Amino acid sequence: METNNFKNPEWDKLATLVAERLKELEKPEKRFLKSAEVRQILGGISAAKLQSLRIGGHLPAINADGLWLYEYGDILNFTTKNKIGGEEAIMYERV
Questions:
Q1: What is the pLDDT of residues 15-58, one digit of tens each?
Q2: How many C-beta atoms lie closer than 10 Å to residue 33's C-beta?
Q3: What does the DSSP 8-state code read for residue 6?
Q4: Residue 46 forms part of a structural domain
Q5: Which of 58, 68, 66, 5 is CA-nearest to residue 33?
Q6: Given 10, 34, 53, 71, which is the most exposed site by the fewest CB atoms within 10 A?
């Protein structure tokens, strides 16, 4: 009877490949996103809502000659910060 031995070099190779692929999936293809891309990421919000988030200081943006650009990391921070039941939300509930 054969037992599963996870110290097998093939398992190590597979684990390395999976870890590398997961890192690739975490990285965005682009550092900056256009308004339409951000609206889609945020669940299809309207242009007016995105503008409101930007003006309110909730979502940092760069204006490049009339083209609004958003950094991918800022989008992730915004969603994490506003996640219901997340660390930030729990902190506010205790106050």
A1: 777 777 766 666 667 789 999 999 999 999 999 999 999 999 99
A2: 21
A3: T
A4: yes
A5: 68
A6: 10
